[in-house]
Design brief:
The complex is a heterodimer of chains A (191) and B (300). Chain A has two domains: 95 residues, Rna Polymerase Sigma Factor, Chain: A, CATH 1.10.1740.10; 79 residues, Winged helix-like DNA-binding domain superfamily/Winged helix DNA-binding domain (Arc Repressor Mutant, subunit A). Chain A is 68% helix and 3% strand. A two-stranded antiparallel ribbon of chain A has the order 1-2. The N and C termini of chain A lie far apart (48 Å). Chain B is mostly helical. Chain B has two domains: 54 residues, no CATH class; 184 residues, no CATH class. Helix content of chain B is 48%, strand content 3%. Chain B has eleven helices and two strands; from the N terminus they run ααααααααββααα. Chain B has a two-stranded antiparallel ribbon with strand order 1-2. In chain B, helix 1 crosses helix 3 and helix 2 packs across helix 3. The termini of chain B are far apart. Classes of the chains: A mainly alpha (191), B mainly alpha (300). The interface between A and B is large, with 78 and 58 residues.
Chain lengths: 191, 300
Amino acid sequence: MPPADSINGLSFPTVADAALAGNPSEIEREVIELFEQFRDPLLRYALSLGIPVHDAEEVIQEVFLSLFRHLQLRRSRKNLRGWIFRVAHNLALKKLFANQRSHAKTTSDWTIAEEPFDPSPGPEEQLSSAQRRHRLLAVVHALPEADQGCLRLRAEGLRYREIAAVLGISLGAVSISLTRSLARLIRADGR
Amino acid sequence: MLSKDGHLSDVHVSDQEMLLAVDGELSTRRAADVRAHLAACWGCRARMAEIEATIADFARTHRQTLDPQLPPIAGPRALLRARLAETASKREVGSWWILHFTSASRAAALLCAAVLIAAMVGRILANQSTLRGTSSIGAAFEPSALPDSRLTPGATRRVSITDVCSMAHEEVVGEVSTPLRHEVFREYGIVNAHPEDYEVDYLIAPGLGGAEDIHNLWPEPYTSRTWNAHVKDALEERLHDMVCGGQLDLSTAQRDIAADWIAAYKKYFHTDRPLVLHSRLESVNVVGVGGVQPAPRQAQ
């Protein structure tokens, strides 16, 4: 529910809508709905940064507890998806640095061995598909981290403006990064 | 592609523009131009197909490699529900004075309590004559809410946006060392300072790249005021959010908060007074309270 008074995304408490602040159950329901909507994309993003599943789940719990406090304090509701991903990104990096687990990235992240085979194609097609995927993953892993972040956030449906806010880079930098990454992927695939 | 005069142009569409087009990031007019060019150019259409096929490959790989690792949502959702309920109950206890503010009778009672507290604190402060003095800044209004700009102009350390935004603002506030605290008190001419009377506060918060440097620290009384440390904390959090959200560059945030943090609060919250939620209970105490003003120190 949007705040009654809002200027440039800032919300100001008023007596009329103060009841909202006193009605945490409504905010709780809203947070749970957002959790259901964004938990999987956030978890995929956190995993792709190289965080183990249980840590990633904990990061996401923290994100939604922060969101709860954010809404209780009647702060801006402008682009909550962008806000959620930005907080998740910050907390995930913090967890990554704290655990010093960056070396585990390739084992917990995109490993071809963990991919399920699609049963429909024949064995040769399966092999070819797996090889292509393997090649694609190798190219992605070789990209600068910011470029990987842009690709993964775009894959989760974020708009360029949201990606720019999450990663703290400009809109133009997002566009250039995605173009550069796709050009490399196309080259690697021999298209 | 259509040129400005409306004729087909021989200039092909760049990869960047094709990607912007498929991602829906071009203006309506520019997108129409790109579509028109693609309709007429086999080469660009083939390139567009490569881009789209690669996007599809990447998106499929992204999902296929990560989805099998995702545990069912039911458990985490139940855990979050429980945590939210716990957080909500704590907040109800901690924020009773905000939540009940809509009641006129309770608001009146709160006002009376505030006046009483103001009177009591005022008397206590009036007795602390040894700490009284004059300040060169903001003498007419809460002088100690602002630091002496000659002594505390603000100091920053070298940080990147990633450094600043990789953790929540409140998690990067460090403890000022005791020797440095004493040095700050000495510079501000405060003798026999009790730790419970002052917070040695950062002018530019560490979460905004502020340094633990005597030029970035000043003794901020814990005395209840309109423009108190809680309000400044809210400003710091707001600036941190804006910087990390790409709405404000870090150097502007540092410059504004160092120049006059009260003016910065007014600017970024669009208000002349602290918002109710940013002031704590003691901040109601603004009428008739004498300030704890440090003795003037020698300007350096």
